[in-house]
Amino acid sequence: MLVVGANGAGKTNLLESLHVGSQGFSPRTRSDAELITFGEQVGRVAIGGHQGQVGLEAEVTLRAREGKEARLNGVRLSAAEQLRAKVATLVFTPDRLAVVKGGPAARRAYFDRVLGRLQPSSAGLPAEYAAAVGQRNAALRRTAAGFSTLDAVAPWTMQVAELGARLVAARRDALDAIEHGFAEHAVALGLPDAGLRYDAEPPTEERLASVLTRDLERGTTGVGPHLDDVRVVAGGRDLRSFGSQGEQRSAVLALLLAEAAVIAARLRSPPLLLLDDVLSELDDTRRATLVERLPVDGQVVITTTSEVMLPVEASQVVRVTPGLAEAA
Question: DSSP string spanning 92-122?
């Protein structure tokens, strides 16, 4: 589906609505109040479709002063974010270039979301590990201030070591799952010898003990996957520091295509792809390559200001003007 409209017409809002309706949250903000029309107290997104041969109806209701509510096929969910365990949606927006050009925290967050989508049983692992690190940091600060002893740090050191080792292993498994596809798509998009580099060591109790004095001085845990980075490379270059914006964009698209293929294979159902303003900064060759590599058995929604940017005929065109989206 091609969504066409002038700048500011609401194309991105439409994609955001599809993300909220299928995932239970916005890819742009965690403040639900920002998603409700100015002057209103309630907002609602309802979507319908098919997952394989099974019909699917999802609905998310947002309230300015209350928690949001989500229903799937008429059944209320305990949390709106549970939708993402039922429906896979991947999104590209221009700010997703931060995955490559941003700092390590942006990449950790991105690849931990990949981990959660590819390994649902491990989806909560990053949050569990972060909580253990937070508790250890608090114990370190209390001990350094004289309000506690090292005995209070030890249990959290064990937790950080155990959960950290599991998180490092889970990240490696997720990266292994997408790296081949990433390299293949990246080459097609003009990035030779592309790869993902995750040089991480699990935070064993021995490693944590070796930096305990420093950790007490700083009040923070100085080793572990909360400090790791995943380098995105091509042609021997780290694209964060030595990649053009076009190369960084191609790398993010290659990551998305690789993840989409793995999700389709594992879940037996292709994800919904939402591609916002993806064509404007690609040359003609890369536009054609991208379109050729989009999944043919799933739904893809692309926004653009002009139909001529899409090198093939769209199966459906939706025109957006302020406050209105209608099939052409």
Answer: E-GGGGHHHHS-HHHHHHHHHHHHHHH-GGG
Express each pLDDT in 112-171 by its tens digit.
Answer: 999 999 999 999 999 999 999 999 999 999 999 999 999 999 999 999 999 999 999 999
Query: Half-sphere exposure (CA, 13 Å, Cβ side) for 238?
Result: 12
Range of the domain at 164: 101-266
Residue 209, domain CATH: 1.20.1050.90
> Would 65 be classed as within a structural domain?
no
In this structure, are residues 36 and 44 in contact, taking their beta carbons and an 8 Å threshold? no
Count the neighbouring beta carbons within 10 Å of the beta carbon of residue 10: 19
CA contacts within 13 A on the Cβ side of 309 = 19
C-alpha 266/C-alpha 263 separation (Å) is: 5
Helices (H) and strands (E) in the chain, counts: 10, 13
What is the rounded CA–CA span in Å between residue 180 and residue 263? 14
Model-wide pTM > 0.85: yes
Are 326 and 319 in contact by the 8 Å Cβ rule? The answer is yes
**Residue 74: strand, helix, or coil:** coil
Query: Which residues fall within 8 angstroms of residue 295, CB to CB, at 6 or more apart?
Result: 260, 261, 264, 270, 273
- Choose among 189, 289, 305, 205: nearest CA to 247: 189
Distance, first Cα to last Cα, the chain: 11
Answer whether residue 79 is part of any domain.
no
